């Protein structure tokens, strides 16, 4: 195997799955076990008015994303030395597609949850105090 830019990027993507899986499982642990909703649906660093309402779905999304990342990590690690397949990890294209889809779907679903938790208020500002 020659070491070039493509090989470096492959290893960076694979190694980046480890902290991402840890972070996602840690967030799910904080939500389900510790009942800490401080990281649920944040917008500009502020939680929504009722974070408990969105905590369950956020925790489930974190568990699913962490499980997918662990599945990819184990699948690639098993295939390289032993040739055992537990998924489509026999080539870079297979595990890269699943890793990329997992990351993007996690970001998109978190964005949707954040938008539902912090709805846009339409109309005129009802504040009666004048601003100077």
Please, could you describe this protein's structure?
The protein is mostly helical and 132 residues long. The protein has one domain (5-117). It is 65% helix and 0% strand. The protein has 3 helices and no strands. Helix 1 packs across helix 2 (51-82) and helix 2 packs antiparallel against helix 3. The longest helix is centred in the middle third of the chain and has 32 residues, at 51-82. It is elongated and about 70 Å long. The termini are far apart.
Characteristic terms for this protein:
132 residues; mainly alpha
| End-to-end CA span | 67 Å
What's the assembly state of these chains?
A: single chain
Question: Main beta sheet: strand number and arrangement?
Answer: none
The poorly predicted ranges are none
Number of strands: 0
Helix content: 55-70%
SSE-based structural type: mainly alpha
Topology (elements, then pairings):
Elements: H1 5-32, H2 51-82, H3 92-117
Helix pairs in contact: 1-2, 2-3
